[in-house]
């Protein structure tokens, strides 16, 4: 992947052209870190000391610096942009759905069977199942057997995101009685090691 940069009339701003669709049509502006919290890419770019504002366009990213020289800022910024697009992560976090009460009876039993099946999905970086890691936020089963799996990853833009989502979809679909399966990625709330099961914490030597 080759990312071009383009100077602007403002020496404090530099346009990055990743050669891929960024927003598609609209322009998104992020004036500060709080505004950037809706985007995994914007959040990471604001982690670079000196970045003061961002704008995303159809096929470009405009970065405003508050301090520092572009020759020093460009390498880490290019690295973040490249890693983001190569990972297949979204520009914006998927909005979390409103909490749905678990259904009683057969649907609830099926949800537990799906959770058991999801133990077969192993995070390739940590080498541990995603259920005990706390990456599965909810399993919602409709009366027709259709399933929604709400999950997250340990970090936004995780390169294994697609692998984990597809593995979750396949494992959920393998359970008898399951209809269509939708896997929804969310980062609300953000994952932390405290979400692990006691067994996982013990495995990784995490002491409460």
From TrEMBL:
Coiled-coil spans in chain: none
Chain segments annotated as transmembrane: none
SMART domains given in the database record: Nfu_N
Domain Scaffold protein Nfu/NifU N-terminal, residue spans: 3-88
SUPFAM superfamilies in the cross-refs: Fe-S cluster assembly (FSCA) domain-like, Hypothetical protein SAV1430
Entries under Gene3D superfamilies matching the protein: Fe-S cluster assembly (FSCA), Scaffold protein Nfu/NifU, N-terminal domain
A Pfam family recorded for this sequence: Nfu_N
Origin superkingdom: Bacteria
UniProt protein name: NifU N-terminal domain-containing protein
Organism: Aquamicrobium segne
């Amino acid at each position: 992947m080759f990312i071009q940069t383009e100077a602007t009339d403002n020496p404090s701003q530099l346009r990055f052209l990743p050669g891929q669709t960024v927003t598609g049509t609209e322009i998104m502006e992020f004036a500060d870190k709080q505004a950037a919290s809706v985007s995994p890419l914007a959040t990471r770019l604001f982690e670079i000391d000196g970045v003061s504002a961002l704008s995303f366009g159809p096929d470009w990213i405009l970065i405003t610096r508050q301090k520092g020289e572009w020759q020093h800022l460009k390498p880490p910024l290019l690295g973040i942009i490249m890693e983001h697009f190569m990972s297949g992560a979204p520009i914006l976090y998927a909005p979390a759905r409103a909490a749905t009460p678990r259904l009683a009876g057969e649907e609830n039993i099926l949800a537990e069977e799906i959770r058991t099946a999801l133990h077969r999905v192993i995070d390739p970086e940590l080498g541990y199942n995603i259920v005990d890691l706390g990456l599965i936020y909810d399993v919602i089963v409709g009366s027709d057997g259709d399933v929604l799996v709400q999950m997250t990853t340990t970090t936004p833009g995780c390169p294994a995101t697609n692998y984990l989502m597809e593995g979750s979809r396949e494992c959920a679909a393998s359970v008898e009685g399951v209809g269509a399966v939708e896997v929804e990625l969310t980062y609300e709330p953000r994952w932390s090691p405290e979400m692990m099961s006691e067994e996982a914490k013990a495995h990784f030597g995490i002491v409460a």
